[in-house]
Amino acid sequence: MSERSDGRDREIREELAVFGFSDTEIDAYLAILAHDEATTRTIAEAADVTQRAVYNIAERLADRGLVRVKEHASPTTISAVPPDDAIENLTTRLESIRPQLAATYDETAETSPDIRIIKSRETALKRLRQAIELADHEIVISIPQAIYPEIESALQAANERGVLVLLLLGDYEGDTDPAPFEPVADVVRYWDEHLPFLYAVDNYREGMVGEAPVLAGPHHDGYAVYVTEAFLTSTIFSMFIATYWPAAKELSVTSPDPLPETFEWFRHAVLQAALSDAESTTLRAEVETASDERLTGRITEVVQQLIEPRSETFSLQHSLCLETADGPVTVGGHDSFLEGYEAESVRLLSEE
Length: 352
Fold this sequence. Notes:
Distance between the termini: 97 Å
Largest sheet: 8 strands, mixed
Strand content: 25-35%
Number of strands: 17
Number of helices: 10
Shape: elongated
Low-confidence stretches: none
């Protein structure tokens, strides 16, 4: 065998091994390629294996679309599929598992926490806009007032599709007329001092927190941290709702929605119940719980931290107290631990 031929065989062996071929399968396949078509005896001698082994190997190679076995011939012969067809067959087999590979990759990507340092204004704003556009249920945001026009349209679109929007504006100057904000957010608060830039989306799916200067322009010393780890994102939400939100002044509050209405997001139901309570509207609630129970009763108390007057309770608590046929019960949202039940959905109805 020439040096060139020997090098070619070595390269073929290395590549076939990548595809999971055993050394014996490679020996047999190279023997078949060299003879084009040959009997099992000839291949066995060339590959230094038994004829029984050749039959088994040929069956596996045929399954992969690399050879054809002529069992009707006497003796049985094996021929190589032309290389172009063989490669196409291998490619087709690989392509057939692409959807499964992609689905597995997506599942892994969704469950793998992502933590990144963001120093670019463009990147920070891009992630904020994407978060607003992809939000399904809720987004809380703290930004400088000067940045608000850059996300106003995205916030309005989110609000129009039923997302609960809580907006906190820092470095606020100017008019306190609530009208311009009513189509954009459910509740808007403002502070004339510096606030950190932060947001959190949909039950701690993702969030970002950092220094407001990261949004100021190309020449700044600020940075932000982007996270998808639930514990860290929940910390961002808690910091927003328990620290900065109550310290700010209320600027705009949405009006009560027409009832009846069903809410898949518990804090949204709590906000609407609080708005109706402020107008002295008596409500009933039909609650589907995480334990597959159905609760129905008059709402006797709304515990919330979203609008004034806020409840004098645990700073993160949002719950509904119901008077049911079986007595009083308390209902909370996802991962609630102070209430007796965790709600999956809440339907609000007026008793008037």
